[in-house]
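fyi for ur records
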Amino acid sequence: MSENENMNHNPEVNESEEDKSPLETFIYHQRKALEEAGKALDALLPDGFKSHGSEAGKEFVKSFKVLVDAAITEIEKATTRVQTVEGEEGGDDRPATTGKTKVKVQVD
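which gave:
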């Protein structure tokens, strides 16, 4: 029998799978196997473990939100300070012509 004939005689193969390549069918069945394995593990865990684990995950996310928000606030403060200092200097991007150091330039 050919592969297609085997698929037609296999009761576990859906009609929609007949149009799929062997690789697509393999991936489909692997995905289903992973889902079922996840359900099996889920059935082994008590409800208390699941609820506490869920709360732990939420707290973990909240902790990073606080950390990121604090970092954003500090960056905004630093940006404001830099803009304020630039504004006090007159905002002129040209280098100063006078300063503490002088350089002698000899022109030929």
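Residues 46-89 form one domain. thats all i got for now
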